[in-house]
Write a structure and sequence with these properties.
15 helices, 2 strands
Length: about 325
């Protein structure tokens, strides 16, 4: 809501181009953050029945969020994420195996197993700079929202968007909506790719064990350790290193926390070790698990976390994805 209010203010015409531009950037940031939180943790919590702990209410809240985001309807999301014994994302023998949702998403995005990290880094950069990728993702999202799911879900999505557009047209706010929503919705696809790259890592080749399953999800600390100084370091060097550290914390790690690692994403390993834990207090729950001796792991920063994922992919067989097609 704040994003739409700021967009409305920016488009009134009584501000300078610089003031209007800054307001729009701030507005887009608010809307993007809201969309990310809609997906994680709220829609995810609805799939597990943990948002309100009332299954039917959680289902329709989740369906509303799915409609707004143009993502899979709740019936299929709950099946592939929780219930389907052959595809359930949380089954320890199923995660990151052919047919499982994250495995298929990684495969669809074009990342390659058995290649050096640099190859997948270049592919990631190409993907994020490709207009065709965003167009394809938006088309796929539209198809998913309005052409898949049960008849009730499709009808609900159509009715919801019809209501939204009717209100916007009658209040003459359709332009504000398009300006406020379009750019964040495109950026949503950008950060979703980054999220896929840090959600899980592939285990070492070999038989799957509970230990290897638990190692596939780590916490991501969206920060970096404070500078460490030596006695011989002068005041200018100390000052420069503090400034550089502060700059990276504000302009790299803070946006990553807001937009890629939104909600409980940074401590998603708690969800693996303790399903059903209070997602709004995962940081506290994680500290409890550490004190209880659970072998939790973590990575400092988004870029090292992506590199860790690419490293886990590099030790897989080259035909990891192709073998599924041949079956």
């Amino acid at each position: 809501m704040i994003g739409f209010i700021l967009s409305h203010r920016a488009l009134r015409g009584d501000l300078s181009w610089l003031e209007a531009g800054l307001l729009l950037v701030l507005a887009w940031g608010h809307v993007l953050y809201a969309l990310r939180c809609f997906r994680l943790p709220n829609r995810h919590a609805c799939a597990h029945g943990d948002l309100t702990h009332h299954p039917r209410l959680d289902f329709w809240i989740g369906q509303t969020l799915s409609a707004i985001l143009w993502t899979a309807p709740m019936s299929s999301y709950k099946a592939t994420h929780v219930f389907d014994p052959a595809r359930a994302h949380h089954h320890w023998k199923i995660l990151l195996t052919p047919g499982e949702s994250t495995f298929e998403e990684i495969k669809t995005l074009g990342f390659q197993p058995g290649v050096p990290n640099q190859y997948n880094w270049r592919h990631l950069q190409t993907l994020l700079l490709s207009p065709g990728f965003y167009w394809a993702q938006l088309r796929s999202g539209f198809h998913t929202a309005f052409r898949t799911g049960t008849p009730w879900e499709r009808s609900y999505n159509l009715a919801l968007w019809s209501l939204i557009l009717t209100i916007l047209i009658h209040t003459h706010e359709i332009t504000v909506f398009l300006v406020a929503f379009t750019v964040p919705r495109i950026l949503f696809e950008y950060v979703q790719v980054l999220r896929v790259c840090v959600e899980h890592t592939f285990p070492a080749p070999g038989p799957r064990t509970m230990a290897s399953y638990r190692s596939m999800t780590s916490a991501i600390i969206s920060a970096e350790p404070a500078p460490v100084f030596h006695p011989e370091d002068g005041p200018c060097e100390r000052f420069t290193r503090w400034i550089c550290w502060s700059f990276r914390m504000v302009f790299l790690h803070l946006p990553a926390r807001f937009y890629v690692l939104s909600g409980d994403c940074g401590t998603h390993d708690v969800h693996t070790f303790k399903p059903g834990a209070d997602f709004s207090n995962f940081e506290t729950e994680r500290l409890k698990l550490i004190k209880q001796g659970y072998p939790l792991s973590s990575t400092w920063g988004l870029i090292p976390a992506i590199d860790k994922f690419f490293s886990s992919l590099s030790i897989q067989q080259r035909n990891l994805f192709a073998s599924h097609n041949e079956k």
